[in-house]
Design a protein that fits this description.
Blueprint (H helix, E strand, L loop, with lengths): L1 E2 L14 H6 L6 E2 L15 H13 L5 E6 L1 H10 L5 E7 L10 H16 L14
Parallel strand pairs: 1-2, 1-3, 3-4
């Protein structure tokens, strides 16, 4: 499942043959998020609806999905991951995340835990609860 950034639509993944390269190995869905490209738009906008939209598309797949988000789409992917149990992988490319200064220690602890897991060769999520707060 591919989620584009804020200044593009699902066609972003056609650049450089990204989508076609992935399609050699997996079924690929490149979605447009709310109000962009072919998705249309509703009368009211809330960012939380976009998170739910991405999670709903992931949940509509028949097997656990790998979710890749770029830039603003990475933010949507992070929040969608918290709303679905149908993920096998989460890939974030240039996520647009700003951390308030007071959460720096908490964020550093998460990064340290992630580095330790990677060092031990742990690259897969063991349970759905590991992505939830």
């Amino acid at each position: 499942m591919l989620v584009h950034g804020a200044v593009s639509d699902h066609r972003f993944w056609e650049l450089g043959d990204v989508r076609r390269s992935f399609a050699k190995h997996r079924t690929v869905h490149a979605m447009d998020y709310r109000g962009v490209g072919q998705s249309g738009d509703g009368p009211a906008y809330e960012l939380a609806r976009e998170f739910e939209d991405v999670a709903a598309v992931v949940d509509a797949t028949s097997e656990p999905a790998a979710l890749l988000g770029h830039s603003g789409g990475a933010l949507l992917a992070i929040e969608a991951a918290r709303r679905t149990d149908n993920l096998e992988a989460l890939v974030l490319y240039e996520p647009r995340i700003q951390m308030p200064a007071e959460t720096g220690e908490e964020a550093q602890a998460v990064f340290d835990d992630m580095r330790a897991l990677l060092k031990r060769g742990k690259t897969r999520r063991r349970s759905s609860s590991s992505c939830r707060r």
